[in-house]
Write a structure and sequence with these properties.
mainly alpha; 226 residues; rod-shaped
């Protein structure tokens, strides 16, 4: 998986990379799901607008705005969102699936359809018919792209668990070494008699700390393997 602080470029790779958090993946999946929901809402209210339902055009335009904003955030990125951050997404948006072009076409067609309905133009029915026609295949594309985000999120979670287990194992090794040092220090302090009394206290504190670290590591490791 290629992590990048990307924007939209099909052939661009950012100079600096940044790991993605679970919160970011949650935001990406939510935005991708928002596109699915708002696309359906948009078409529904476009149909109602063509039947002169009061307020339908306004609701359809709001849905279009949300759809357009979600797509821009997912593809172009922001201070929080990474844009196109892996090859799987690049392929989904700009490869065989041609997701970006299909979504942009839907946005443009929806805008023209709503304008035509609102202005009572003769081509409004034909535009609406085309908008309704492409909605089902578009939903299929949106579902596939959402699946990519979900799969990337799962891979991220697995990677984070592996990294956590590795870190905890390193800490556990260090704690064991520190405990051995503490044990040896107590022996040296005992041999030193009164002169080693203060040193013995320090060694005891170190032993208590390593015991607490052991407990924390066990809890963390049990969580990482859950």
């Amino acid at each position: 998986m290629l992590l990048q602080n990307g924007k939209t470029g099909k052939d661009e790779t950012a100079d600096d990379t940044r790991p993605l958090s679970g919160e970011v993946f949650g935001a990406l999946i939510n935005l991708s799901g928002r596109r699915r929901f708002t696309s359906q809402r948009l078409v529904l209210y476009a149909v109602l607008a063509s039947q002169r339902h009061e307020g339908a055009v306004k609701i359809a335009r709001e849905a279009l705005g949300l759809f357009r904003g979600a797509h821009a955030g997912l593809v172009k990125g922001s201070d929080i969102l990474p844009g196109i951050f892996c090859e799987e997404l690049r392929e989904a948006y700009f490869g065989k699936l041609d997701g970006d072009a299909q979504i942009v076409y839907f946005i443009d067609l929806a805008e023209r359809t709503l304008n035509a309905i609102e202005d009572g133009l003769r081509d409004a029915p034909a535009l609406l018919e085309e908008l309704v026609r492409i909605t089902t295949p578009l939903l299929g594309i949106l579902n596939q792209i959402t699946t990519v985000y979900e799969e990337q999120s799962k891979r991220h979670a697995v990677l984070m668990k592996k990294q956590l287990r590795g870190i905890m194992t390193d800490i556990e090794t260090i704690a064991k070494q520190a405990k051995m040092v503490s044990f040896n220090a107590r022996i040296v302090a005992a041999r030193a008699g009164q002169a080693g009394k203060e040193f013995s206290v320090v060694a005891g504190v170190l032993s208590n700390i390593t015991t607490e670290i052991d407990d924390l590591v066990r809890v963390a490791l049990s969580g990482a393997t859950a």
